[in-house]
Amino acid sequence: MIECRDLTKKYGELFAVDRLSLKLAPGDVYGFIGPNGSGKTTTMRMLATLLNPSWGEATVCGHSIYTGSKEIRRAIGYMPDFFGVYDDMKVTEYLEFFAAAYRIQGAERKKKVEQVLDYVDLGYKRDALVTSLSRGMTQRLGLARVLLHDPQVLLLDEPASGLDPRARIEMRELIKRLRQEQKTIMLSSHILPELAEICNTLGIIERGKLIFNGTVEEAENEVRKLRGGRAFLVSVGERNAEAAKKLTAFKEVAGADLDPKAGAVRVALRSGYDDGSFIPERLIADRFKLHSFREEEINIEHIFLTITKGITS
Ligand SMILES: Nc1ncnc2c1ncn2[C@@H]1O[C@H](COP(=O)(O)OP(=O)(O)OP(=O)(O)O)[C@@H](O)[C@H]1O
């Protein structure tokens, strides 16, 4: 669906995007993560055929960005990080304007507009002026706009930026629905946790370079490898400090430290040891009262921090 090979954009001496290669299959939801200025928007704009690369190749739905811009623009929905809305235009007028640009005609146009408004749950604002919408509503309108022509590929640049937590959840639910419809979605963010539930594959970009590219599972394995093994969180309540000391002595344990945020002892296993079940077993045998035990989850934030640290240090 999307394929890049050595895609590069140079601004003077700066490599905004540096030999980026990736491949997205139909139905993939690709979380494109990186700090501000790392090259996410530049990549998306090249894929949307709005910006010419310095070199490299990319195809979207089988069309080259150099020769197939017409076909690509028909097949994609690109939602930029900032987009203007027009003063004195009602929500329906705004969408009808874009539907017309996609050559959706007559009764079909009205039907489509109502459909996308319903999809993003903005039907009740159909007669409101676009300038009167909140940031969250404006983002949902932006999404409605790129869905008008039912594109197979969506390029969403920071769709949740500037949204409050509730609006962010609403946006996430919308993207989950699009995923169920087998759309291929590239989604950028510098706010990491919001991508966790949505994506099946991930790319981490730093200073124009893709420093990780793979499935979420591969990213988790990479984190385990870089960290040296699995980690578990165990709590025995007030006796956590005592338990930490005891656990440190076991041959399977690389380290056992109090994790005040989790209210537990974080037990890191030495590499080669996978099974943490001995932790509660031995604590119980030692008459500790077990409050909780679980494997430490690896969230996107961990992945980002560990992988960027692992690569740059
Ligand atoms: N037109 C331009 N001229 C010169 N430099 C540019 C231009 N556009 C982008 N850059 C630079 O290219 C780099 C990548 O920018 P880009 O906007 O792609 O980053 P980003 O990852 O999308 O950042 P953000 O999260 O802030 O949106 C930055 O260093 C930026 O300053």
TrEMBL record:
Listed InterPro entries: AAA+_ATPase, ABC_transporter-like_ATP-bd, P-loop_NTPase
Gene3D superfamilies: P-loop containing nucleotide triphosphate hydrolases
Pfam families according to UniProt: ABC_tran (PF00005)
SMART domains: AAA
Domain ABC transporter: 2-232
UniProt key word Manganese: no
Highest taxon listed in the record's lineage: Bacteria
Family note: Belongs to the ABC transporter superfamily.
Listed PANTHER family: ABC TRANSPORTER, ABC TRANSPORTER, ATP-BINDING PROTEIN
Protein's UniProt name: ABC transporter domain-containing protein
Lineage, top ranks: Bacteria, Pseudomonadati, Planctomycetota, Planctomycetia, Gemmatales
